[in-house]
Structures are given as structure tokens and as C-alpha cells.
Amino acid sequence: MGLDIVSTNGQTPLDEDEKEGLLIKSITTQSELNEFEQQNIEKAMLWLRSKKFNTEEILSEKFVKDLHRRMYAGVWKWAGDFRRTDKNVGISKHHILTALKQLLDDCLYWIQHNSFPDEEIAIRCKHRIVQIHCFANGNGRHSRLMADVMMEKIFHLSPFTWGAANLVKQGDPRAAYIKALKKADAGNYAKLLAFAKS
Ligand SMILES: Nc1ncnc2c1ncn2[C@@H]1O[C@H](COP(=O)(O)OP(=O)(O)OP(=O)(O)O)[C@@H](O)[C@H]1O
Ligand SMILES: [Mg+2]
């Protein structure tokens, strides 16, 4: 039996080709997959800690891809590559690059013009990047880490706490997180910001 990835609350199901990109053939369950991904993400966090990045470097297509690659490179062959299929979340695969560039430009503008409080800029950016859904999977964790990188390396603030819970697992914190994302879809960022700080 191959990997049985169940589409759970707000998680993107994988296509057959994407399942084929799994580099660790011994993984057979979602929880084993989560575990391997988490170990790989910790390596990406060490990489982040060991380097200095300026605002322009962080708000670049290269950084967005590099971060995803660093988070998942040992697990998925397509880590750091834009998705090649359409998903139930996210825009058409053809518009990913343009939408990402627009977002990164907007984000730089908000920072330069103090358009919103710093933490709200990080949350708006997190929400839009996950809406674009650049990658086949791992977009939620990547978007949360992008927000934390912005908080620490651009704004010199503490990273978010994201409900102080493991959001990859089903449960009340994930339900609250998805609910807050839906409010943000409607242009109301207060709930997502409050959640991120809780
Ligand atoms: N209605 C929505 N509006 C905006 N974003 C959404 C919505 N539903 C789901 N998402 C986002 O999509 C993410 C799931 O995408 P994906 O499976 O690629 O990421 P993931 O890192 O594997 O997920 P996660 O770590 O959140 O479990 C969720 O974390 C959430 O951030
Ligand atoms: Mg997922």
C-alpha cells in the first residue's frame, strides 16, 4: 500500500504525481510524513538562524522558493518548485508567478509607507501567500514561517505563537485557525492576527 493522504480540514490533497515525489519510500502514514517534514523544517530553521537577510532579500521570489526548498527538500522532490497542477485552494497555476511578484511588491510598499502596523503587514503577507498557494503542499507551514521571518528579520519583533499548538493536527486550534483564515479571505485580518499572537 502506498501513502494514504486523507484530505482533512483545510489541507490540500496530493495528486498521484505529487505522491510520486515522495523521497522517503518507507513513509506509509500521514503521521510518519508529518514527522519527517517536521525534522526537515527544523533544519530550515537552523539555516534561517545562521544567516542575515535584508528586507529586499526576504521579499523576493528566490527567498520564497529557497525557504520552501529548505523546509521540505529531504522529503519531496518538488520542494521549492511552483506547483504544476490546480488545487481547491489557490489561484490558477498559470498566475502564481505574477501574483507572487505583486504580493512581494505590495508588501515592500506597505513596509516603506507604514501602511499598516508591522504585525498586520506580516499577517496580510502570510494570508495572501497561502491564498496564492505557490507549492503543491506545505504552503500553510511555509506561510507561517514567512510571517515569522518577517517579524524577526524585518521588524525585529518576536515570532508569532500560532495558538501555541500543532496546527498540522486536527483539533480545536486548527479549526480556529482555518476559521480566522476565512475571515481574512473576506478582508478581516483581526481574528487571524489575534490567533497568531495567542
Ligand atoms: N479558506 C482558506 N483561505 C486561505 N487559506 C486557506 C484556506 N483553507 C486552507 N488554507 C490554507 O492552506 C493551508 C493548507 O495548505 P497545504 O496543505 O499546502 O499546507 P500545509 O503546510 O501542508 O498545511 P498545514 O501546515 O497548515 O497543515 C492551510 O494551512 C491554510 O493556511
Ligand atoms: Mg498539506
What do you see in this structure?
By secondary structure, this protein is an all-alpha fold. It has a single domain, classed as Fido-like domain (Fic-like fold), CATH 1.10.3290. It contains nine helices and no strands. The chain has helices at residues 16-20, 30-49, 55-58, 61-72, 96-112, 118-132, 139-154, 172-185, 190-196. α2 crosses α4. The longest helix is centred in the first third of the chain and has 20 residues, at 30-49. The radius of gyration is 16 Å and the shape is globular. The N and C termini lie far apart (40 Å). Magnesium ion is lined by residues 11-12, 137.
Q: Please report the number of helical segments.
A: 9
Rounded to the nearest angstrom, the radius of gyration is 16 Å
Question: How many domain modules?
Answer: 1
What is the fold named in CATH at topology level? Fic-like fold
Give a quick account of the main beta sheet: strands, pairing sense, barrel closure: none
Share of residues in strands: under 5%
Number of strands: 0
The CATH H-level homologous superfamily:
Fido-like domain
The geometry reads as globular
Distance between the termini: 40 Å
CATH architecture: Orthogonal Bundle
Low-confidence segments: 1-6
Mean pLDDT across every amino acid position: 93
In N-to-C order, the SSE pattern is HHHHHHHHH
Percent helix, as a range, is 55-70%
List cofactors, ions and other ligands.
adenosine-5'-triphosphate, magnesium ion
- What structural class results from the helix and strand content? mainly alpha
CATH class: Mainly Alpha
